[in-house]
Amino acid sequence: DKPQPASSAVIQKVIEQAYDKYKPVMDGKNASYIPYLAKADGKLYGIAIVTVDGRVFRIGDAGHPFPVESVSKIFTLADVLHKQGAESVLHKIGVNATGLPFNSALAVELNNDKLGGSPPPGNPLVNAGAMATASLVEGKTLDAKWQSVIDTASAFAGHTLHLNDNVYRSEMASNQHNQAIAMLLQSYDHLYADVSETVDLYTRECSYDVDAVDLATMGATLANGGTNPRTHHAVVDAATSAHVLAVMATAGLYNTSGEWLFKVGLPGKSGVGGGIVAVVPGKLAIGVYSSRLDAAGNSVRGQLAVQFIAQALGANIFAAEAQ
Known about the structure:
323 residues; alpha+beta; Beta-lactamase; five-stranded antiparallel β-sheet; two-stranded antiparallel ribbon; globular
């Protein structure tokens, strides 16, 4: 017998409890190194849950748009995996945790395979690996590649997503560190397209707007084997979804990914825009927005809300009752 999905009344109650419980929490602070993000209203807080049968639950500022930032990495990865296969990603990017900060150039130095056959630099969810992923996106021109990225993300969300031009310009003006990482990758033959084009594509990829309902819908598409439960559009195949969720479990929350998996037991992905998505495979996904971040770059209230909801719904993928 398949377990019955949680009733709508139960989910609604849990989402309300999570919202009320953490609304007063004002710990953490906005990302300061991107001017647009520094100005975000730290009081805003929204939660959404989307189930694999297409039910939508929302509370608070769940419709407030914000820059997707690093959460986008999972959808660009899905695009590349779906079109090029798992072997390509394994050999060209790698899927291991780096144990170093997400924007580390040192990780590229330590993990390059010219030093004796070690796997490539990290994984698709740290900046280096995400730029390597972006360099694998198919398209003859930068605009064609960008169209591929935003079309895939939009299919995950179930409607057209748009570039936030202010964020894009703000980040293009201050992305010297990422340019350096891209050059380093190129020197080790781990960048598969033009450096400046790849950095531009990567920056665009981090600069489209979403809201918490979008994140929950995008996550629910992964929970549902790659088919959007609201539009019924098959965005990617089930194997791609499973691989994306595995990488999220390994490296979705920057330096604290292991701690997150230990405490929450769900694949998740955060971004410095304040978004966080967590996926319960076969059941649902949770999207939260709150711009105030901890030292690792993860939304403080986002993490608290997801952990509360996961516990209340018994969603930890590692937990089991004795038979």
